[in-house]
Design goal:
Elements (H helix, E strand, L loop, with lengths): L2 E3 L6 E4 L17 H29 L6 H20 L9
Antiparallel strand pairs: 1-2
Helix pairs in contact: 1-2
Length: about 100
């Protein structure tokens, strides 16, 4: 298992994907490569959904009024995924 620094306190010797830092108690102190890849994939999917909603809105303004209703799930889904990925990229802390 690889060791790295805590992203909260900077202490070295924290295992990758450890749930808590043993020094400061921070949540997900050293995310591993697969965790970071998951965050990048979530952001890519959310941006793809937002780009799809823009495409639907462009087509709806061109006279296809029926396509306007298909943009809303993409706008809501893409923006909520992107917001969650930016605010809590490694998940939420568990309550005790």
């Amino acid at each position: 298992m690889s060791l790295g620094k805590c992203r909260h306190c900077g202490e070295v010797g924290i295992a990758a994907d450890a749930p808590l830092c043993r020094y400061c108690g921070g949540w997900r102190p050293n995310p591993g490569s697969m965790t970071k890849l998951g965050v990048a994939a979530t952001r890519a999917i959310s941006l793809t959904m937002l780009i799809g909603s823009v495409a639907f809105l462009i087509l709806a303004n061109g006279g296809g009024g029926g396509l306007f209703m298909y943009a809303f799930p993409f706008i809501i889904g893409g923006s909520s995924m992107l917001f969650r990925s930016l605010t809590r990229p490694y998940g939420q802390e568990h309550s005790a």
